[in-house]
Write a structure and sequence with these properties.
Number of helices: 5
Helix content: 55-70%
Distance between the termini: 46 Å
Number of strands: 0
Structural class: mainly alpha
Order of helices and strands: HHHHH
Radius of gyration: 17 Å
Length: about 100
């Protein structure tokens, strides 16, 4: 068996730490949304520059919108506009957390 570190092994080890796991879970929805946005744009055959043109904005704004590390949270209206020009709509769903009680 290959003992070289891999991203997957690192992730599994890191997620055993409760603090890391909590932060990972908190970011997972934003990461998944941005991953889907990038996938939709690429499936449409559009570059960030072309997407910016369709939305009447700058490429840097699209880059920031798609960047998981961005400290700026997009407005829902911005995400809806992004989806709309690609032929999609946005659906928001709330799910109960199993680790928290009210």
């Amino acid at each position: 068996m290959n003992k070289r570190p891999t991203i997957e092994r690192f992730r599994k080890k890191a997620l055993k730490n409760p603090d890391v796991k909590a932060e990972y879970d908190a970011l997972s929805a934003a990461f998944e949304m941005k991953r889907q946005m990038i996938t939709m744009r690429k499936k449409a055959g559009l570059t960030q520059e072309q997407m910016a043109e369709l939305l009447g904005t700058k490429k840097s704004n699209i880059s920031r919108l798609e960047n998981i590390s961005s400290a700026i949270s997009p407005r829902l209206a911005t995400v809806e506009d992004y989806a709309r020009v690609l032929g999609y709509s946005v659906k928001v769903a709330f799910e109960p957390e199993t680790t928290k009680s009210i």
